[in-house]
């Protein structure tokens, strides 16, 4: 993995546009706010099940961000790797991280 | 579900101790910091796979918090409900939220 | 865990009725058939994505069976344990297996 | 999705070798046996938690098969699509099925 990682870092990847960055960061800011919201719920001794529902919602939101990052990664970095004959390494790496992700 | 919810809210549940609150809130603060960390990674155009690894780590941490909340809920609220003949409703509610959680 | 396990095995639990057994076994038979169906799809060189959709469907069906087993377990074995002062051990065991389950 | 699906079906994909088929089918046969094993456990009124542990094991085994199918799909079908300018459609389809999979 390290090897590909170095390969990837050595080769310029399509950098995210301002709009792309904003879209991801805004979603993460919303998630950050939700995490703060749960802290408040705990402090106020709110009903456990309501807290669990909120945690599930954050998990779902994080997975959504993750998949949008994975999609962009596959459309840019992995596709570039495929076209320069480095596809297998890039795909092994992608699958590895998606496995972790689906836990 | 509403019905049980009302039942639960009407009956005093064992409130969380200061230590219990601190333990959960501290874990959530750490998660909040991790979410902010990903925002920075996106801004700095860091490698997508590194970002995905971080998102997986947050998901795992959130699940851990969720299970500790669910465990306490079961040991207190659900157990109380069992002992006062309201067990089935409380267990249905618990299973419902854990299903959502395991997605 | 062993300790509780022995406790559980030593104490008579409400045995499943014929109907309860049939309901679970029938769902498992359907799942078994789906697993055989995928073997056929692989043999016939069917499109990978169609195979993946089928695998997802089986996973969802298995989770559903699992949650129905967990629900019954909580309504019977765990509730009995709560009422005889062995609740915490039974709940720890339940949470442990649900954690594995939500991976 | 249909559109790509048709595209994929119209274009010859690298068919699985006998060895590749055997590897997947053998894993699925083992899973089929495990599902039958659970039916027996239910019939014999075995302890619920032991049944749940088995169901978790099958879920994990199925995910493993799924990821190996997804990996092969990405290394062959998706990579071919990338090289013939159909990458985005193939990647959208892959992500869609992996999302379902990670539930």
Automatic annotation (TrEMBL), chains A, B, C, D:
Pfam families in alphabetical order: Trns_repr_metal
Signal peptide: none
InterPro entries tied to this protein: Metal_Tscrpt_repr, Metal_Tscrpt_repr_sf
Region (Disordered): 1-21
Name this protein carries in UniProt: Metal-sensing transcriptional repressor
Biological source species: Lentibacillus juripiscarius
């Amino acid at each position: 993995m390290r090897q590909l990682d170095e390969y990837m870092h050595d080769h310029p990847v399509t950098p995210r546009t301002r709009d792309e960055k904003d879209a991801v960061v805004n979603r993460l800011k919303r998630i950050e706010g939700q995490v703060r919201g749960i802290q408040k719920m705990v402090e106020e001794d709110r009903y456990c099940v309501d807290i669990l529902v909120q945690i599930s919602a954050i998990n779902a939101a994080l997975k959504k961000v993750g998949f949008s990052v994975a999609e962009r990664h596959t459309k840019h970095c992995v596709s570039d790797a495929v076209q320069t004959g480095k596809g297998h390494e890039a795909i092994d790496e992608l699958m590895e991280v998606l496995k972790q992700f689906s836990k």
